[in-house]
Amino acid sequence: KGDGQIDDTEAIQNAIDAAVSGDTVQVADGTYSGDGNVNLDTQGKAITVQSENGSDNCVISGSGTDRIFYIRQGEADTTVIDGFKFQNGYSDDYGGAIYCDTTSPTIRNCVFQQCEARFGGALALSDSKAEIELCQFNQNESHEKGGAMYVTGYDPGTYDGFRMDDCSFTECRSLKGGALYTN
């Protein structure tokens, strides 16, 4: 739509592609999956990708075959993902729902549900200083480490790392670190 919102007939990636730094991509209520709605790339832009009415009303599904966001182009905390339910995200390596590689986005008001990956069933951070706020991690699974989250490049003595505020973890499973694994 011309007002900066997308509805369920459009692909989220198309709206991200059209956005410029400072924009908000507002996603209408509904369930999104498939091409243009998974493997989303914020392209290093300082944008907010936000649901119209919160995670109860806006679901992005990986359908058990796809990761939902791959954030990897140096994004800072001014890149914001806000108010989604990420469901059935999948990756055979890192982060079933979101993989952040050397970035620092803000992720808030999101529900990660039934996502699966080798490392970090729902969320994986590699040398990333992401801010995760008011998120719920439910029934996520890792095949090796971090049922909900896997964090690499974290040294509490020298690396100021990621930040989590008011997050909850329920029924997340992994061989090591049911909820969170850091190294």
What does this structure look like?
The protein is mainly beta and 183 residues long. It contains one helix and 21 strands. A seven-stranded parallel beta sheet has the order 1-2-4-7-11-15-19, covered by helices on one side. The protein has a six-stranded parallel beta sheet with strand order 3-5-8-12-16-20, with no helix packed on it. Strand 1 (5-6), helix 1 (12-18) and strand 2 form a beta-alpha-beta unit. The chain is globular and about 40 Å long.
- The assigned structural class equals mainly beta
Helix content: under 10%
Number of strands: 21
- Parts with pLDDT < 50 across at least 5 consecutive residues: none
Shape label? globular
Strand content: 35-45%
Record the strand order, biggest sheet: 1-2-4-7-11-15-19
Task: Name the average pLDDT.
Answer: 93
Order of helices and strands: EHEEEEEEEEEEEEEEEEEEEE
Radius of gyration (CA) equals 15 Å
- The span between the termini is 44 Å
Q: Biggest sheet: strands, sense, closure? A: 7 strands, parallel
Q: Number of helix segments?
A: 1
Question: Could you write a compact summary of the structure shown?
Answer:
Helix content is 4%, strand content 40%. By secondary structure, it is mainly β.
